[in-house]
C-alpha cells in the first residue's frame, strides 16, 4: 500500500450500526431456524441544514458514505471546507457543517438530477457528469497473475453477504491486494464509502483497481473515474453505457469473472497475459 499523508480531518461521529439482524424462519422441513438478514436504514444527507438526498444503507460507516457521496457528486470539492460530520440515527440523518456555508449555495448544482439503475435507485447530479471528462486517467498495466492473486485475496471478504445475502461489495485494490473493502445494500453506496475513506485519508486512486460484485453501470464507471481509478473489474456483467464511458475515459474494464475465466471489454492493450 502506498504511503498515506493524513492532513486535516473534520470532527466526526462514529455511529456505525450492526449490519445484520437475527430473525426466525421456517425451512422446507417445517423447522424453525435463526438466520441473519441484512439491515436497511434511510440516511438523509444534510449540508448546512439543506437536505441533499436520502440513501438506503446498511449503516456501518455512515460518515464515510456521506463524505464519499458529496465528493463523488462534486457537491463539495475540498475536505478542508467541512467542519463536522455528525450522524443521528434518531432522526435518520447525517448533518454536514461547512466552514463557508456551502450548503446554501448547492441549489443550482441540485437542479439537474438523473435517477440511475443503482440498487434502491442511485442519483447522479449534473455537476458530477460535468466534471467527469475533466478527469485524466493514467493507464496501468494489469497482469493476469495479479488479477488471479487479487481474486484469491478477495475470497475471505463478503462476510455480510455470506451471513445474510442481499448486499454488494466493492474494493479498492493494488498489486493484487485488497486495501479497502466495503459492503452495503447497493454497490453505489459501497463505492461512495470507499471514496469517503480515500478522501479523508488522502489515498490516491492512481495505480489502483476498483472491484465490484455488482454490474458495471455508467454510474459505477463514473464513480471509479472520479476517484481516478484506471481499472475496474466485476464478477457480474456490464451495461452498454458503462462500456461507452469506459471507452471514452480509457479505462481498463474486465467483467464476468468466474474462477480463472473473464472477459476484457475495454483496455486490452493494458492487460498482460502471463499465465
TrEMBL record:
Pfam families: FdhD-NarQ. GO terms for cellular component: cytoplasm. Keywords: Cytoplasm, Molybdenum cofactor biosynthesis. The active site is at residue 119. InterPro entries: Cytidine_deaminase-like, FdhD. The keyword Transcription regulation does not apply. One of its GO terms (biological process) is Mo-molybdopterin cofactor biosynthetic process. It is found in: Cytoplasm. GO terms for molecular function: sulfur carrier activity; sulfurtransferase activity. The keyword Cytoplasm applies. It comes from the Bacteria. Required for formate dehydrogenase (FDH) activity. Acts as a sulfur carrier protein that transfers sulfur from IscS to the molybdenum cofactor prior to its insertion into FDH. PANTHER family: FORMATE DEHYDROGENASE (PTHR30592), SULFUR CARRIER PROTEIN FDHD (PTHR30592:SF4). Belongs to the FdhD family. This is Sulfur carrier protein FdhD. It comes from Desulfoprunum benzoelyticum. The gene is fdhD.
Amino acid at each position: 500500500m502506498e504511503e498515506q499523508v493524513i492532513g486535516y480531518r473534520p470532527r466526526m461521529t462514529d455511529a456505525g450500526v450492526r449490519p445484520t439482524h437475527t430473525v426466525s424462519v421456517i425451512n422446507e422441513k417445517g423447522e424453525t431456524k435463526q438466520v441473519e438478514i441484512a439491515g436497511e436504514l434511510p440516511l438523509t444527507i444534510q449540508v448546512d441544514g439543506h437536505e441533499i438526498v436520502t440513501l438506503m444503507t446498511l449503516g456501518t460507516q455512515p460518515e464515510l458514505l456521506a463524505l464519499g457521496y458529496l465528493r463523488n457528486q462534486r457537491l463539495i470539492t475540498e475536505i478542508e471546507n467541512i467542519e463536522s460530520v455528525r450522524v443521528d440515527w434518531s432522526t435518520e440523518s447525517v448533518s454536514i457543517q461547512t466552514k463557508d456555508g456551502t450548503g446554501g449555495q448547492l441549489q443550482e448544482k441540485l437542479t439537474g438530477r438523473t435517477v440511475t439503475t443503482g440498487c434502491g435507485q442511485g442519483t447522479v447530479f449534473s455537476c458530477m457528469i460535468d466534471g467527469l471528462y475533466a478527469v485524466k486517467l493514467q493507464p496501468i498495466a494489469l497482469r493476469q497473475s495479479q488479477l488471479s492473486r487479487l481474486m484469491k485475496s478477495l475470497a475471505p471478504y463478503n462476510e455480510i453477504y455470506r451471513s445474510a445475502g442481499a448486499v454488494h461489495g466493492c474494493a479498492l485494490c493494488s498489486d493484487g491486494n485488497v486495501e479497502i473493502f466495503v459492503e452495503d445494500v447497493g454497490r453505489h453506496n459501497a463505492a461512495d464509502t470507499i471514496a469517503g475513506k480515500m478522501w479523508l485519508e488522502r489515498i490516491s486512486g492512481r495505480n489502483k483497481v476498483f472491484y465490484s460484485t455488482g454490474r458495471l453501470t455508467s454510474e459505477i464507471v463514473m464513480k471509479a473515474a472520479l476517484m481516478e481509478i484506471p481499472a475496474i473489474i466485476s464478477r457480474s456483467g456490464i451495461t452498454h453505457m458503462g462500456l461507452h464511458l469506459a471507452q471514452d475515459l480509457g479505462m481498463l474494464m474486465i467483467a464476468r469473472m468466474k474462477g480463472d475465466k473473464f472477459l476484457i471489454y475495454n483496455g486490452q492493450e493494458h492487460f498482460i497475459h502471463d499465465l
